Model the fold of this input.
Amino acid sequence: MTTAEDAVQTDLRDNGVLVICLDHPPVNALTPNLRAALMQALGQTGDQRVHAVVIAATGRNFSAASGAEPLETPPNTPTLAELCRAIEDLPLPVVVALQGAAIGPGAELALAAHARVADHTARIVFPEVGLGLVPMAGSTQRLPRLVGAREAVAMLVQARPVRTEEGLTTGLIDVMTEGDLLAEAVAYAAAMPAPRPVRDRRDGMADVPGYQAAIAAARVAAGRGVLPAAGRIIECIEAAVMLPFENGLALEAIAREDLEAGEESAALCAAALAERQAAQMVPGVAKIRAKTVAEIGLVGAAAQMPAFALMALRHGVSLRWLDDDATRRAASMAWISQRQDAAVQAGQMTQMQRDADNARVSQAAGPQDMQGCDLIVHGAAGDAVAGFARLLPAAPQLVMGGAEGAFGLSLAPSARISELALPSGAAPAHIAVAVQFLRRIGLPPVLEGKMPVIGRRVAQAGRLALIRMLEMGVPQRLLASALDGFGQALPDMADPEKVAAMPSIGGSEVVQRWHGAMANEGLRLLDAHVAARPSDIDLVMVAGYGFPRWRGGPMHQADRRGLLVLRRDLRLWSADDPALWTPHPVLDRLIADGRRLEDLNL
Done:
């Protein structure tokens, strides 16, 4: 039988085990509908034929939604905490069958069961600290009861993923199976003589002095950070050994509510959502199974070409490099060699790996030598791009730095993200190859229009704002102090030749002018259809240009401050530099429509 729009499947086995299976593609996120369906399915345990319960899931993952989006609770819908409590309170044994990822809410649900059976693919992650939050459904109280304070800190405060083998060792996982996961879970549930709620267990609390010592050490480490979530999680873990279970749950709920109201959590959740939105593929591309890139061709040179080549080599890709300038080619290879030597000395790679990487690099004498390459990257735009497109029609042609009408590629300074500009009418297969390759080598792309310039232009706008304030007489030490308080380092800047008398600008205004210039530039990029959404701008700045993740990004900051306030400030500051701070007309349109920047992220 099925329940609640087929979100949950139920099956009562002959041995009296009720199997409740999550069936909510793509990742079995514990949405309100799925929580309601689960609660409805649990109601079947009143049937006298039911002696135990197994909660399982279809698909690769048990439940892989991170919880970055608020888990809204419509009327008459159970919260995650209520669902977990209902599972734990069942008077029958409850076993969870885990495969793939159990992340955030899914991990909390698994912890509320009486036992956990997992296959070798299982991975349990409590990511809430990365969102500036504590768990929402009792994990700070249940987890230390099973694994102790030290392991609970690692899993909750450090958000360390726990794979099946480690979970078995620490006590988080009860059974690891190499066979049929569901069959093993059903057999284990049927053999359990009685419920065994985690709230009643003390496995991880036998050594109270050791528990308290682990808490003290964690508190010292957390004190070095700037965000409050780690400290609040540690408080809750400490409460697990000091307070009754119900009181510990209440403390966790208060901590969660406090942190949800904080600016840091809102920014971290916005950053996580920006990553999720940027990862969504354009229509017509998502279902394409792209060819694996085994060999790429590099044509010419660009400032970012050696870094790109090095990352490709580290991921086992072969290179053919065509560059008529021998001196330039030698300089590029020397740059790569220096980084490889440093990696060997640091123990990050072996000499054998270094030699293997170098063996995959070959020099091309002409375009014909590029036959067989799966992807071509050009150092600059020109006639060669079209020529290679005719010669190798199946290979995407990327241009470093971008060019009108071409696949433009730009690497962020952090080497953790890239920008990929899609030309009009780009072949879906080419997009799929380029995107999947960039993700594979650790450069997940933000897709843009026209030119890949978001990071450069927004960062430059912020830099120009700082330079302009220097020229206005704001001391560099004040700029540095203001940005340091925000969590951002002041870029290197020479003192201007002419400086006006020092104006009455404080540290908060320094940060607001800096933000305002970047947000205003972001509006220009949105209006020009270079940036698809404000969250993409924030993602590039956070992941690529050092903007503090716990501040969310310049567009998020503009929303938090308020667009009316931003427009008022920009109008005031525009007298100091019209080109930099005159409000872009998009701001007027948003205000007139009563919209926020986050409304454009949909």
